[in-house]
Design brief:
The complex is a heterodimer. By secondary structure, chain A is mostly beta strands. Chain A is 0% helix and 58% strand. Chain A is globular and about 40 Å long. Chain B has no helices and eleven strands. Classes of the chains: A mainly beta, B mainly beta.
Chain lengths: 114, 114
Protein backbone atom coordinates (compact mmCIF):
# COMPACT_ATOMS: atom_id res chain seq x y z
CA UNK A 1 0.00 0.00 0.00
CA UNK A 2 1.07 3.56 -0.64
CA UNK A 3 0.52 6.79 1.23
CA UNK A 4 1.68 10.38 1.02
CA UNK A 5 2.09 13.00 3.70
CA UNK A 6 2.39 16.64 2.81
CA UNK A 7 3.61 18.77 5.69
CA UNK A 8 1.89 22.11 5.90
CA UNK A 9 -1.51 22.82 4.41
CA UNK A 10 -0.37 26.36 3.62
CA UNK A 11 3.01 27.79 2.72
CA UNK A 12 3.53 31.52 2.34
CA UNK A 13 6.50 33.05 0.57
CA UNK A 14 7.43 36.39 -0.86
CA UNK A 15 7.90 36.85 -4.56
CA UNK A 16 11.48 35.92 -5.42
CA UNK A 17 11.96 33.73 -2.37
CA UNK A 18 12.71 30.04 -2.31
CA UNK A 19 9.75 27.69 -2.49
CA UNK A 20 9.91 24.43 -0.55
CA UNK A 21 6.93 22.11 -0.40
CA UNK A 22 7.44 18.93 1.59
CA UNK A 23 6.29 15.44 0.70
CA UNK A 24 7.02 12.16 2.40
CA UNK A 25 5.81 8.87 1.06
CA UNK A 26 5.31 5.31 2.11
CA UNK A 27 5.33 2.49 -0.38
CA UNK A 28 5.73 -1.26 -0.22
CA UNK A 29 7.14 -1.30 -3.75
CA UNK A 30 9.52 1.01 -5.58
CA UNK A 31 7.41 4.10 -6.02
CA UNK A 32 6.60 6.40 -8.84
CA UNK A 33 6.22 9.90 -7.42
CA UNK A 34 4.50 12.93 -8.87
CA UNK A 35 3.86 16.56 -8.16
CA UNK A 36 0.75 18.18 -9.58
CA UNK A 37 -0.47 21.77 -9.50
CA UNK A 38 -4.12 22.76 -9.41
CA UNK A 39 -5.46 26.22 -10.08
CA UNK A 40 -8.92 27.13 -8.77
CA UNK A 41 -11.72 25.15 -10.35
CA UNK A 42 -9.37 23.47 -12.77
CA UNK A 43 -7.97 20.01 -13.24
CA UNK A 44 -4.48 18.93 -12.36
CA UNK A 45 -1.36 19.69 -14.29
CA UNK A 46 1.72 17.52 -13.97
CA UNK A 47 4.76 19.42 -12.75
CA UNK A 48 7.21 16.55 -12.67
CA UNK A 49 7.55 12.87 -11.98
CA UNK A 50 10.09 10.43 -10.60
CA UNK A 51 10.17 7.01 -12.23
CA UNK A 52 13.33 5.41 -10.81
CA UNK A 53 15.76 7.20 -13.11
CA UNK A 54 17.63 10.31 -11.97
CA UNK A 55 16.90 11.23 -8.36
CA UNK A 56 16.85 14.95 -9.12
CA UNK A 57 13.90 15.62 -11.37
CA UNK A 58 13.34 18.86 -13.20
CA UNK A 59 9.85 19.88 -14.16
CA UNK A 60 7.98 22.70 -15.75
CA UNK A 61 7.89 26.31 -14.59
CA UNK A 62 11.29 26.05 -12.90
CA UNK A 63 10.27 23.46 -10.33
CA UNK A 64 12.38 20.50 -9.35
CA UNK A 65 12.22 17.70 -6.80
CA UNK A 66 14.73 15.31 -5.33
CA UNK A 67 13.94 11.71 -4.51
CA UNK A 68 15.63 10.65 -1.28
CA UNK A 69 15.02 7.01 -0.55
CA UNK A 70 16.73 7.11 2.84
CA UNK A 71 14.38 9.88 3.95
CA UNK A 72 11.36 8.63 1.95
CA UNK A 73 10.98 12.18 0.74
CA UNK A 74 10.23 13.93 -2.52
CA UNK A 75 10.24 17.64 -1.69
CA UNK A 76 9.37 20.20 -4.35
CA UNK A 77 11.50 23.31 -4.73
CA UNK A 78 11.77 26.41 -6.87
CA UNK A 79 14.59 28.91 -6.40
CA UNK A 80 12.50 32.02 -6.93
CA UNK A 81 8.75 32.24 -6.46
CA UNK A 82 6.54 34.08 -8.90
CA UNK A 83 3.08 35.41 -8.27
CA UNK A 84 1.72 32.98 -10.84
CA UNK A 85 2.95 30.06 -8.73
CA UNK A 86 0.17 30.63 -6.23
CA UNK A 87 -1.93 27.47 -6.41
CA UNK A 88 -2.60 24.14 -4.72
CA UNK A 89 0.13 21.54 -5.03
CA UNK A 90 -0.38 17.83 -4.64
CA UNK A 91 2.19 15.12 -4.17
CA UNK A 92 1.14 11.67 -5.34
CA UNK A 93 2.50 8.15 -5.36
CA UNK A 94 1.68 5.07 -7.35
CA UNK A 95 2.95 1.59 -7.09
CA UNK A 96 4.05 -0.48 -10.01
CA UNK A 97 5.10 0.69 -13.40
CA UNK A 98 2.72 3.54 -14.00
CA UNK A 99 0.53 6.02 -12.36
CA UNK A 100 -2.54 3.88 -12.06
CA UNK A 101 -4.49 4.51 -8.89
CA UNK A 102 -2.60 7.53 -7.76
CA UNK A 103 -2.68 8.16 -4.03
CA UNK A 104 -2.61 11.87 -3.33
CA UNK A 105 -1.44 13.87 -0.38
CA UNK A 106 -3.77 16.37 1.22
CA UNK A 107 -2.27 19.22 -0.74
CA UNK A 108 -0.36 22.38 0.09
CA UNK A 109 -1.63 25.80 -0.84
CA UNK A 110 1.19 28.08 -1.89
CA UNK A 111 0.61 31.75 -1.23
CA UNK A 112 2.94 34.27 -2.87
CA UNK A 113 3.00 37.83 -1.65
CA UNK A 114 4.48 40.78 -3.52
CA UNK B 1 -0.16 16.47 -26.16
CA UNK B 2 -2.94 14.11 -25.34
CA UNK B 3 -6.07 15.75 -24.02
CA UNK B 4 -8.92 14.59 -21.87
CA UNK B 5 -12.04 16.67 -22.20
CA UNK B 6 -14.46 16.66 -19.27
CA UNK B 7 -17.95 18.08 -19.51
CA UNK B 8 -19.67 19.92 -17.98
CA UNK B 9 -17.23 22.07 -16.06
CA UNK B 10 -19.90 22.97 -13.56
CA UNK B 11 -23.48 21.96 -12.90
CA UNK B 12 -26.17 22.88 -10.41
CA UNK B 13 -28.97 20.42 -9.93
CA UNK B 14 -31.92 19.89 -7.65
CA UNK B 15 -31.81 17.28 -4.93
CA UNK B 16 -33.13 13.95 -6.19
CA UNK B 17 -32.16 14.42 -9.81
CA UNK B 18 -29.35 12.70 -11.68
CA UNK B 19 -26.32 14.27 -13.28
CA UNK B 20 -24.07 12.80 -15.96
CA UNK B 21 -20.44 13.78 -16.31
CA UNK B 22 -18.52 12.85 -19.44
CA UNK B 23 -14.83 12.36 -20.03
CA UNK B 24 -13.51 11.97 -23.53
CA UNK B 25 -10.02 11.19 -24.68
CA UNK B 26 -9.62 13.34 -27.75
CA UNK B 27 -6.70 11.88 -29.63
CA UNK B 28 -5.93 8.52 -28.09
CA UNK B 29 -7.69 5.43 -26.83
CA UNK B 30 -8.35 5.27 -23.12
CA UNK B 31 -8.89 1.70 -22.03
CA UNK B 32 -8.89 2.73 -18.38
CA UNK B 33 -10.37 5.83 -16.78
CA UNK B 34 -10.03 6.82 -13.16
CA UNK B 35 -12.68 8.90 -11.40
CA UNK B 36 -11.69 11.05 -8.45
CA UNK B 37 -13.66 13.18 -6.05
CA UNK B 38 -12.37 16.22 -4.25
CA UNK B 39 -14.14 17.83 -1.33
CA UNK B 40 -13.43 21.49 -0.59
CA UNK B 41 -9.95 22.02 0.76
CA UNK B 42 -9.22 18.31 0.63
CA UNK B 43 -7.26 16.03 -1.61
CA UNK B 44 -8.44 13.88 -4.45
CA UNK B 45 -9.82 10.52 -3.52
CA UNK B 46 -10.11 7.74 -6.04
CA UNK B 47 -13.72 6.66 -6.41
CA UNK B 48 -13.56 4.03 -9.10
CA UNK B 49 -11.68 2.63 -12.04
CA UNK B 50 -13.51 2.01 -15.27
CA UNK B 51 -12.33 -0.28 -18.01
CA UNK B 52 -13.70 -0.23 -21.51
CA UNK B 53 -16.24 -2.96 -22.02
CA UNK B 54 -16.34 -4.21 -18.44
CA UNK B 55 -17.74 -3.27 -15.06
CA UNK B 56 -16.10 -0.56 -13.06
CA UNK B 57 -14.14 -1.30 -9.92
CA UNK B 58 -15.20 0.83 -6.98
CA UNK B 59 -13.10 1.83 -4.02
CA UNK B 60 -14.21 0.88 -0.57
CA UNK B 61 -17.03 3.05 0.71
CA UNK B 62 -18.16 4.26 -2.70
CA UNK B 63 -21.75 3.33 -3.55
CA UNK B 64 -21.76 1.79 -6.99
CA UNK B 65 -25.52 2.16 -7.34
CA UNK B 66 -25.24 5.86 -6.67
CA UNK B 67 -22.23 6.57 -8.85
CA UNK B 68 -22.87 4.76 -12.10
CA UNK B 69 -19.90 4.46 -14.40
CA UNK B 70 -20.10 3.52 -18.03
CA UNK B 71 -17.10 3.02 -20.29
CA UNK B 72 -18.72 1.86 -23.48
CA UNK B 73 -16.05 3.00 -25.89
CA UNK B 74 -12.33 3.60 -25.93
CA UNK B 75 -12.83 7.34 -25.99
CA UNK B 76 -15.69 7.95 -23.59
CA UNK B 77 -16.33 7.24 -19.93
CA UNK B 78 -19.28 8.65 -18.03
CA UNK B 79 -20.05 9.08 -14.34
CA UNK B 80 -23.70 9.49 -13.38
CA UNK B 81 -24.55 10.71 -9.93
CA UNK B 82 -28.01 9.31 -9.30
CA UNK B 83 -30.56 10.81 -6.93
CA UNK B 84 -28.10 13.52 -6.01
CA UNK B 85 -28.12 15.04 -2.54
CA UNK B 86 -26.36 18.10 -1.17
CA UNK B 87 -23.65 15.93 0.35
CA UNK B 88 -22.73 14.82 -3.17
CA UNK B 89 -21.68 18.36 -3.97
CA UNK B 90 -18.03 18.09 -4.84
CA UNK B 91 -15.41 18.45 -7.54
CA UNK B 92 -15.20 15.37 -9.75
CA UNK B 93 -12.17 14.73 -11.94
CA UNK B 94 -11.35 11.98 -14.40
CA UNK B 95 -7.93 10.86 -15.49
CA UNK B 96 -6.48 8.34 -17.81
CA UNK B 97 -3.17 7.10 -19.10
CA UNK B 98 -2.15 8.60 -22.39
CA UNK B 99 0.73 7.74 -24.69
CA UNK B 100 4.13 7.36 -23.02
CA UNK B 101 2.47 6.44 -19.72
CA UNK B 102 1.58 10.03 -18.99
CA UNK B 103 -1.39 10.75 -16.78
CA UNK B 104 -3.94 13.17 -18.15
CA UNK B 105 -6.68 14.78 -16.16
CA UNK B 106 -9.92 16.28 -17.25
CA UNK B 107 -10.71 19.85 -16.34
CA UNK B 108 -12.98 18.72 -13.55
CA UNK B 109 -16.69 19.18 -12.86
CA UNK B 110 -17.97 21.15 -9.94
CA UNK B 111 -21.29 19.71 -8.88
CA UNK B 112 -23.58 21.66 -6.61
CA UNK B 113 -26.76 20.00 -5.42
CA UNK B 114 -29.38 22.34 -4.03
Amino acid sequence: AQSVTQLGSHVSVSEGALVLLRCNYSSSVPPYLFWYVQYPNQGLQLLLKYTSAATLVKGINGFEAEFKKSETSFHLTKPSAHMSDAAEYFCAVSGGTGFQKLVFGTGTRLLVSP
Amino acid sequence: GAVVSQHPSWVICKSGTSVKIECRSLDFQATTMFWYRQFPKQSLMLMATSNEGSKATYEQGVEKDKFLINHASLTLSTLTVTSAHPEDSSFYICSTEGPNTEAFFGQGTRLTVV
